[in-house]
Amino acid sequence: MTKQEQISKSVVEASNRIGTTWPLYSFVTSNPLSGYEKLNFEEAVKESARFLKSKSYPEASIFRQALEKNEIDKVLLAEMLKHERMLSTPEDYLNSMEIEDLKTSKTNKSELDVIMSKWLAQFMDEGIAEWQMPNKEQGFYKAWKILAVHNTSLNGGKLKNLPETSIEALELVLTNYEIGDYTQIFRAHIGALSGWTGYIKHRIDTNSIWQQQFPIDIQDYLAVRLTIANHLGFPIEMNTEVNDNASDNRLRHIWLKAWEATFQNKLVSDLEINGLSVAVSEEKKSMPDAQMVFCIDTRSEMIRRNVEASGNIETFGYAGFFGIAADYQHYQEEISIKSCPPIVGSPYKITESPQQSLFEEDKKFVTNKAASKSKLQILKRLKNMLPSSFGFVEGSGVFYGFSLVARSFAPTFFSKFQVSNSRDYESFCEPQIAYNGGDKNAEIIALEEKVAIVKSGFDLMGWKGFSPLVLFVGHGSHTANNAFGSSLDCGACAASPGRHNARLLASLANETAVRDVLRMQHHIDIPNDTVFIGAEHNTTTDEIVIFDAQVPTSHKERLATLKKNLQNARETATRERLNVNSGSVALANKKSENWGDTRPEWGLAKNAAFIVGSRDLTSAMNTDGRCFLHSYDWKLDPEGAALAGIMGGPMVVTQWINNHYYFSSVDNIKFGAGSKITHNITGQFGVVQGNGGDIKSGLPLQSLRASDTEMYHQPLRLTTIIHAPLERVESILKSNAHLQTLLDNEWMYLKVIDPKDSNTFKTYTKNFSWESYQSNQDAKSTRAVEALIN
Predict the structure, then answer these.
(1) Quick one: 590 and 454 in the same domain?
(2) What residue spans of 149-296 are helical by DSSP H?
(3) Residue 149: is it exposed, middle or buried by C-beta count within 10 angstroms (0-12/13-18/19+)?
(4) Which of 48, 58, 201, 634 yields a CA-CA distance of 20 to 30 A from 64?
(5) Is residue 733 included in any domain, yes or no?
(6) What's the pLDDT tens digit per position in 96-132?
(7) How far is CA 458 from each of CA 193, 226, 279, 497, 771, rounded to the nearest angstrom?
(8) Is residue 418 predicted with pLDDT exceeding 80?
(9) What share of the chain is helix, strand, coil (3-state, %, to 5)?
(10) Could you tell me if 443 and 586 lie in one domain?
């Protein structure tokens, strides 16, 4: 193997540990340590500390808050410490962790990081900069090479004779280094700017338009970085030693496990008391007036409780892309966006088509909108271009002054003014599904594929009967001046709103041909008077908007009653969520429209569990927005195909979300986004703190903490609870190596409620071993403690 081949091999090996940084316009939550998942959690966080200089356990102050709030069972904690031969009191150990936290200090940005972040920002810009970096089409290394000779801060005059290619540049820089050190050197330099390198990975993985036109890869990044380091005398071999206090790390791991076990014990106890007796009942229920399918999102649990309390309404939980693996393309746009989980391909495309009867009216609307868009683009150019910027500020100061006052003191009025000339496309457009070939007029998909999409949803949810009104409710978050707005949208839709998929599924389920096949071939008999409707839950205001433009007259009265119930549900839900006795709807609206509100809503903060089973399991509980809820009836899934789909899809996605929140909480500087107050947007895709540095790949402090010091999100790893026969779950695990890895390496937990063994809770330990679990007795026994520790 040649030296260049060795370098290429080491680049690939080092790159495998990179997490993905998603752009602001599609801010998908994912595990920043996904590249370390093949290691046990404890080993993975130790490795990440070496190369990312990160922390991976909560601070002592967070543990103290949990202990004081009785979120950590002191008896259980003491038993777990004793099992590890740690015989001092929990208070003593808290004090020692606090001392260790005081020793830990964050290193300042290195000069090399500052230089590299500026070059990356210039090259990877996606439209903010009016003057683009020249020669970008040649790729990052070659474009940098052309400009570097003119850069005085680099003393670029001495960079005239650089190699032509990035691989040759790396070969030159590494002349005096051993081949066996390459991978470690590369990992350290990749980890130094993990936000930027994670976004390079995203561009490569998605093969975006920007990547196609202006290519960049990790080899280019390393070639530029190491060439600069070598030229300016910075070390090539970076320090990967950490303050590896093994006893402190083990201590924090035990505290974390005790916290997680306390949460699990309470959840299991609540399910035993409130859910199982109802779930196993065979009582015949009357058909509800309406049925509503919500996303499994933790925010849906609260609105579902309030909707159910508002009338005779049955609710279900289903991943919010509604089983449609597609991209979405608005009929006025040229590009499409992903509208299904990132781990799923997009064989289909959802499009919108204006109804023929409204076509002429729509043409006039589109023309007016295009004119407004052109005006905005001209204003943007005047504001950003150097020759006109000063005159623009002088001339437009009064207008922008009024705008500033209105946004600050009358956000509701300003918001209404902004949308006064807009129009809801749902009122005159019909959703369509086609094969994803890039052409707006691509071929409409075959009938059997439409049937499969609809049937899959009914199968996964364990559907038994149909009401006259069935609503598929996607969700989206409507906020103002929020760089991280997409992080509040639907995670199952790749951080896009779920309304497009909801409308399409309703449209497919209403097709006569689809219903005929479902009835004749699959014994799913949908009554003639059942109408499916798309809707959207605004998670910031708890308003549920129903896209009812095409609902038949025969159902208008029923729909009017449902809307009244949903308005009542909105009022009770906002009161509960915002903890106020009156004016809750107005307050929720204000928070969504106020451009100065740093916390318009909490998103998925507090998430800690994923429950797969009948709604009866949780309908009598208030899970406090901590649980993802996926409907499932094990009796209707004898082959386990539906459960395999849930475990292989939503279960993995919820683990992503959970770990994203976990790591953003425990190290907000490295894995989160710091304070919103000092954010600046770069390149239209990322956020940096202040005037530069690494791209922030996680969530801001305001999405995680109630104040600078008080936690809101509790950093616990995900616990999945499945109501299904144990052998069925185990069979699925044995055929899914990735799930085995996540469980065996403790990236998540799994408990099964086994209906074939008196609904006994059984906890997965490792290598397909299971412990029978009783929340009130065994949890504090030595055997249970050993299972939790080992």
Answers:
(1) yes
(2) 166-173, 182-192, 194-206, 209-213, 218-232, 246-270, 276-279
(3) middle
(4) 48
(5) no
(6) 999 999 887 655 678 999 999 999 999 999 988 878 9
(7) 45, 55, 19, 22, 33
(8) no
(9) 50, 10, 35
(10) yes
Instruction: For residue 682, give both structure tokens.
Output: 């770069």
Contact 48, 670 (CB under 8 A): no
Q: What is the pLDDT of residues 59-96, one digit of tens each?
A: 999 999 999 999 999 999 999 999 999 999 999 999 99
Q: How many domains does the chain have?
A: 3
Residue 191 tokens, joined: 């980890």
- Yes or no: say if 140 and 216 are a contact pair by the CB < 8 Å rule: yes
Domain end position, chosen among 582, 598, 614: 598
Distances (CA, A) of 764 to 175, 245, 747, 768, 770: 50, 30, 13, 7, 5
What is the token pair recorded at 384? Answer: 């950003």
Q: Residue 329's Cα: distance from chain center in Å?
A: 21
Residue 396 lies in a domain: yes
Cβ-proximal residues to 574 (8 Å cutoff; 6+ apart), any chain: 541, 542, 584, 585, 587, 588
Which of 323, 656, 339 has its CA nearest to residue 496? 339
Considering Cα of 722, then 723, then 726, then 728, what sign does the dihedral take? negative
Collapse the DSSP code of 52 into the 3-class scheme (helix H, G, I; strand E, B; otherwise coil) and give the result: helix
Q: Where are the alpha helices (DSSP H) in 34-192?
A: 41-52, 60-68, 74-83, 90-103, 111-124, 140-148, 166-173, 182-192
Q: Residues 448, 546: one domain?
A: yes
DSSP letter for each residue of 356-385: GGGHHHHHHHHHHHHHHHHHHHHHHHHHHS
- The reply to whether 474 falls in a domain is yes
Domain assignment present for residue 188? The answer is: yes
Centroid of chain to Cα 311: 32
Residues 308 and 215 in one domain: no
Is the Cα torsion angle 76, 81, 83, 87 positive or negative in sign? negative
Say whether both 344 and 398 belong to one domain: no
pLDDT for 134-167, tens place per residue? 999 999 999 999 999 999 889 888 898 999 999 9
Domain check: are 188 and 330 in the same one?
Answer: no
- Only one residue has tokens 């649990």, namely 301
Mark whether 446 and 582 lie in a shared domain. Answer: yes
Distance CA 297, CA 653 (A): 11
Contact 700, 676 (CB under 8 A): yes
Among 573, 598, 623, where does a domain finish? 598
> What 3-state DSSP class applies to 308?
helix
Q: Which amino acid is at 605?
A: A
Helix then strand count (H, E) for the chain reads 28, 17
**Contact indicator for 596, 410 with CB cutoff of 8 Å:** no
Q: Which H helix or E strand runs over 546?
A: strand 543-547
Residue 9 parent element (H or E): helix 3-15
Instruction: State which residues form the domain around 26.
Output: 1-55+104-244
Dihedral angle sign, alpha carbons of residues 85, 264, 759, 461: negative
**Contact 258/73 with Cβ under 8 angstroms?**
yes
What the block records as the tokens of 588 is: 């929720």
Which residues, 6+ apart, have CB-to-CB distance to 171 below 8 Å?
3, 4, 7, 163
Is residue 601 within 8 A of residue 477, CB to CB? The reply is: yes
In whole angstroms, give the CA distance from residue 117 to residue 495.
26
Strand partners, 545: 536
Q: Alpha carbon 575 to chain centroid distance?
A: 26
Cα(first)–Cα(last) distance of the chain, in Å? Answer: 42
Q: What is the CA radius of gyration of the chain?
A: 28
pTM: 0.92
Domain co-membership, 386 together with 331: no
